[in-house]
Amino acid sequence: MEHHHLTTTVVVLDRHALFRRGVVALLRDAHPDWHCSDADSLDALDPILDTEQAVLMLIDLNHPDLLARGGLERLIEAHPNHMFAGLSDEDDRGTVLTCLTAGARGYILRSTNTTQFVRALETVVDGAVYAPVALTAAPRPAPEVSPAATLATLTDRQRDVFNLLAEGCATKTIARRLDLAVGTVKVHLAAIYRALGASSRLEAVAKAHRLYAMG
């Protein structure tokens, strides 16, 4: 598989030195062309976060520095030129969806085997969203709809929101780019979810991508 994406720099922020250094070694072995490094604090990441170069950040979701700075969503909003993926021991669906709703491009369990860990990062680097399938499956399958039927039900403003949703933008980012209140964006997103037959943001993004591919 070839990976044509601007993000070839990966930085791992994690409380556990052995884990983050193991991840770096794993990725360097799998992708010698990637620039991989690790950090033990957000302060150490600041020089990288402040650059214009697109970087994929693997962030320990329970790192005290992250919590001190207002959480993942605030970090993502402050650094829109980078991509973020969450690292966690928690395998409940709600935590996964909270992470992805904040704008993360991936959710990776520390218990993931090495082969799947690399594939997860490849998925994110290629511009898609990654999360363990078992943790994101909807309780009931949603009906499939045609691209024309779906788009026909949306207003012009909802289509604007839909396009930014498909790009992976967080709710606050959509609000800023469209000059809308966050609450208004959430109303539009709810209408889009209904039109797509989606029960979560992740499912809506996946269906939006499929609609673009079909259309």
Task: Give structural notes.
The chain is of the alpha/beta class and 215 residues long. The protein contains twelve helices and five strands. It has helices at residues 17-30, 42-49, 64-68, 72-78, 93-101, 114-125, 133-136, 147-152, 156-166, 171-178, 182-196, 201-214; strands at residues 9-13, 35-39, 55-60, 83-88, 106-109. A five-stranded parallel sheet has the order 2-1-3-4-5, sandwiched between helices. Helix 1 links the parallel strand 1 (9-13) and strand 2 (35-39). Helix 9 (156-166) packs across helix 12 (201-214). The two termini are 25 Å apart.
Topology overview:
Elements: E1 9-13, H1 17-30, E2 35-39, H2 42-49, E3 55-60, H3 64-68, H4 72-78, E4 83-88, H5 93-101, E5 106-109, H6 114-125, H7 133-136, H8 147-152, H9 156-166, H10 171-178, H11 182-196, H12 201-214
Parallel strand pairs: 1-2, 1-3, 3-4, 4-5
